[in-house]
Design brief:
- By secondary structure, the chain is an alpha+beta fold.
- It has one domain: Immunoglobulin-like, CATH 2.60.40.
- It is built from 2 helices and 9 strands; from the N terminus they run H-E-E-E-E-E-E-E-E-E-H.
- The strands form 2 sheets. Strands 1, 4, 7, 8 and 9 form a 5-stranded mixed β-sheet that branches. Strands 3-2-5-6 form a 4-stranded antiparallel β-sheet, with no helix packed on it.
- The protein starts with a helix and ends with a helix.
- The radius of gyration is 19 Å and the shape is elongated.
């Protein structure tokens, strides 16, 4: 299903992608299900200049941003961070050049964000400290 949605996205972009780079992917929660409504920040390192774009993940977890060729191009490193009220996840990749139709080149990076945890690092540490504290309280003599 994901490949079908992504394929339709590429087909719809074919007419407008002549000098564009597309960064797309899917944001998943920690159970491996698509995550709707995450704030996605895409950072492309083009010639030592970081160019940022933002998007939101859709109901199927997908996101996509489009760069001009001067801002992000083949071989550039891309980092994607997805943030929610309860946590964040990130992924990275390199832009490649793909020819999907005769005469149409698409610069593309597919970066899936594998896990957006239910609670973040701070809450995990707080849970650990609480567990140790309760254990110490119960074990006191």
């Amino acid at each position: 299903m994901t490949l079908m949605v992504f394929g339709l996205f590429l087909i719809s972009m074919a007419g407008v992608v002549s000098a564009k780079t597309v960064v797309a992917g899917i944001v998943y929660d920690e159970e491996g299900l698509p995550f709707d409504g995450a704030d996605v920040l895409v950072s492309c390192d083009h010639n030592s200049t970081i160019n940022n774009q933002s998007a939101a993940s859709q109901s199927d977890g997908s996101y996509a941003v489009e760069y001009d060729e001067d801002d992000c191009n083949t071989g550039d490193n891309v980092n994607v961070t997805a943030t929610t009220d309860t946590g964040y996840g990130d992924g990275s990749g390199v832009v490649i050049s793909k020819t999907s139709y005769p005469g149409v080149d698409i610069n593309l990076a597919i970066i899936n964000v594998p896990t957006v945890p239910e609670f973040g690092f701070f809450m995990g540490i707080l849970t650990l400290i609480s567990a140790v504290g309760i254990f110490a309280f119960v074990r006191r003599d």
